[in-house]
């Protein structure tokens, strides 16, 4: 059997998808990853084969730096970072407008390139990142079955009554103005309609007989795999047939500096704002000061922020551009995150309470889910004071935090049935059902 994995050229997307593919790799199956060149080293680390398939104008091998991007992408990123400093509504509105250029980059060309890869690899099963729209356009238009991997909060795949880019829930620390929120929703509806038109135009170019679709954002594959814990998703939303994978906990290389840090059994807080939002050094510095006030140690992945921006760092802390997140979260007393898919799921996986400081996209809905489930807290990154941050971090790091029991139960369930195992079983069941249907006809 051959599995084809299709991912944008971003480490934060490829890492969970490649981890899912380890179930096929370890079963002795042939795995091919179609992505861009920036993440080629990650594919190699997993021991997988790669074919070249760039799907966007940007790329990120682990730490996002605007100077390493194409001119248009660099300018877009700088405007995005500026929007995050102005607040949630400006950020979401900026992202909405950008979707028409960054989600389906060169759609007809990239769709044809995807079909060429499929023809070359001849896979028995396909895993695709939900945000790889140009690739999914190709597969959908050609009638090729695929499993849709949704990273982040499930609202990344909107359901009835929702519009992509407009959060269905907000954490308590955010109180959006109703007028601004209505304006955001109108903009997101307009963008959704235009995006569907863009999809339909490209689809008819690929196949003049292609059916028109009403909402490209809500379209999904034959199998929907949510890379998310069910514990955080029980909010009454009517989801399509799906499987919750929990998290995709990958193996990480030995690291002598991290080993030395972990020899100290004193509790510590893990901090990461991911590959993009680590540029918000002002917030990272405030978090670092807040942790110092609690007396806890810290392991902080600073990304593109210079270490000097944090100010004086207490002895015994681990501060580095990039850290092995899974290994550190296995031992952390609490975590502080922007609410990205990997940091949230990889915190919940080992049962670590999390403080979410959401900046953009589905991070607001994810932060609300963390609050609702009792597995953590959420604060507004631009306005939370050092005192508020210290109080929240100390409360979460306390062994008596009330949400720890639910987290322990979730961690045990994920240990028994890891995400890759669930994905493997879901695709096997789907293929068996497809064969049965063909036979019955």
Automatic annotation (TrEMBL):
**Which keywords appear in this protein's UniProt record, sorted alphabetically?**
Glycosyltransferase, Transferase
Q: Name one GO biological process term.
A: antibiotic biosynthetic process
- A single GO molecular function, which one? UDP-glycosyltransferase activity
E.C. number(s) listed in UniProt: 2.4.1.-
Which superkingdom does the taxonomy of this entry point to? Bacteria
- What is this protein's record name? PGL/p-HBAD biosynthesis glycosyltransferase
């Amino acid at each position: 059997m051959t599995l084809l994995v299709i991912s944008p050229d971003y480490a934060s997307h490829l890492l969970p998808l490649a981890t899912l593919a380890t179930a096929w790799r370890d079963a002795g199956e042939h795995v091919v990853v179609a992505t861009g060149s920036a993440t080629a080293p990650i594919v190699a680390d997993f021991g997988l084969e790669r074919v070249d398939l760039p799907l966007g104008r940007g790329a990120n091998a682990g730490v996002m730096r605007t100077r390493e991007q194409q001119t248009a992408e660099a300018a877009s990123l700088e405007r995005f970072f500026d929007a995050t400093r102005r607040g949630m509504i400006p950020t979401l509105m900026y992202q909405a407008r950008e979707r028409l250029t960054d989600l389906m980059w060169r759609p007809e060309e990239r769709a044809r390139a995807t079909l060429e890869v499929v023809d070359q690899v001849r896979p028995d099963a396909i895993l695709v990142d939900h945000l790889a729209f140009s690739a999914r356009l190709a597969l959908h238009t050609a009638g090729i079955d695929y499993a849709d991997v949704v990273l982040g909060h499930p609202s990344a795949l909107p359901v009835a009554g929702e519009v992509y880019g407009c959060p269905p829930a907000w954490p308590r620390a955010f109180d959006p103005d109703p007028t601004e929120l209505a304006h955001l929703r109108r903009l997101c509806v307009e963008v959704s309609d235009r995006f569907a038109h863009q999809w339909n135009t490209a689809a008819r170019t690929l196949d003049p007989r292609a059916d028109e679709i009403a909402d490209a954002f809500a379209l999904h594959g034959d199998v929907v795999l949510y890379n998310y814990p069910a514990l955080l998703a029980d909010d009454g939303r009517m989801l399509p047939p799906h499987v919750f994978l929990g998290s995709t906990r990958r193996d990480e290389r030995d690291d002598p500096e991290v080993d030395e840090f972990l020899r100290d059994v004193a509790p510590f807080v893990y901090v990461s704002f991911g590959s993009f939002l680590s540029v918000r050094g002002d917030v990272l510095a405030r978090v670092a000061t807040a942790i110092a006030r609690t007396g806890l140690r810290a392991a902080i992945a600073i990304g593109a922020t210079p270490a000097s921006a944090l100010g004086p760092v207490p002895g015994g802390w681990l501060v580095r551009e990039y850290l092995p997140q899974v290994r550190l979260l296995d031992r952390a007393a609490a975590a502080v995150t922007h609410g990205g898919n990997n940091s949230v799921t990889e915190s919940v996986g080992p049962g670590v309470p999390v403080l979410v400081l959401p900046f953009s996209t589905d991070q607001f809905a994810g932060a609300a889910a963390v609050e609702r489930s009792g597995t953590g807290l959420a604060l507004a990154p631009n306005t939370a004071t050092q005192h508020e941050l210290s109080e929240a971090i100390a409360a979460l790091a306390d062994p008596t935090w009330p949400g720890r029991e639910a987290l322990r139960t979730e961690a045990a369930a994920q240990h028994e049935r890891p995400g890759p195992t669930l994905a493997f079983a879901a695709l096997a069941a789907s293929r068996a059902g497809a064969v049965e249907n063909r036979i019955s006809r």
